[in-house]
Amino acid sequence: METLILLAVLAVLLLLRVPVAIALAISALLVLPSQNYGYESAITDLFNGLNNISLMAIPGFVFAGILMAKGGISKYLIECLRSWIGHIPGGMAVVCVLACAIFASISGSSPATAAAIGSIMIPGMVQAGYSKKYAIGLVAVSGTLGILIPPSITLIVYGYVAEQKASIGKLFTAGILPGLFFTFTLVVSAILYAKRNKFGSLPKASWKERWVSTANALPAAIMPVFILGSIYSGIVTPTEAAVLSCLYACLVSVFVYKEITWRSWRPIITETVNLTAMIFLVIAAATLFKQYLTLSQVPQLAMQWIAETEMNKYLFLLLVNLLFLILGAFLESVSIVLLTLPILLPMLGTLGIDVYHFAIIMTINMEIAMITPPVGLNLFVVSGIAKESFEKTVAAVMPFLWIMLLNLVIVALWPGLSLYLIQ
Question: What is this structure's pTM?
Fold first, then answer.
């Protein structure tokens, strides 16, 4: 009964557009006393929920991503890619996808990736003859690679919730091949779309232009190798790598590209603090939610129900994916992970589902949530950049949903794609 009250209160608060963190905290505090849980303990648990070294990677990667977006990184990456492949059929669309993939390996955030690449690529694609609707949709969808290709804020939160069952380093590794596969499918679809609609190509760049643009982009291009290589080689932890990424981004943006001035720092720091505070408030509030689930033994009851119904893992994955698609229409990715994973995680071992494979399935669902109305973050970001209405942005994204759903099905049915590099 208490669980139904909690879910009902949470649903009502979310429908009233109460911030997710506040809605989680209020709904949990209403029912926790029924589990002999005093309000005095809530303050301690709120702080304990944030007292985890892994979470320190979040502000680091957020700050590095924003700094790189403001510091000219996206501009030089796009210029380099455009000089090499802009002349092929669908070249500008391919440039857009690859630029998002590279920037995703720096930022860890889908909205940051869409904002950094979209501000340049949407006008560029329109100028090259693409329809604005297609450019908007492609940027919004390609931007979702930000939470699949490591480093990923969503995978960091997953590792935090999973605690001893999954390391963040291995979660990052598990995201590499699915992220590259998703990039490949977007590239193929972009080329086919361009050929079908007979979009023109840009003039072929000279070899001098190519080498100059490559030299300019090199400091940005080696950053993913530097950061991820240091993690996978065991030199640093993901949290330490986040600090390294901040340092590297500062050096490149200030001393190499020289596009960050003293006036630039305030908006960069403000945006970093706002985004980090939002994530951390949700994590703290979700700690109380998780506390109620633990005390009321909701995960154990769910496992018992699965055992009684003799559910197999494929039916489980189907139902869970449907749940994620529904929740993705109303909640952002961090909230969904924090709400559902504490319940779902104990069931994975029972059904023989690998925790790393499930992480990638969950992350792709969170990518879909980024472009699902009414609260898809990438929709708002791209709508603002393109200066188009929210409704037109949603219409532009809808044709790309089949690609994302196809990738979700392939990853769900092909565990080896996620697990090959960590076996």
Answer: 0.84
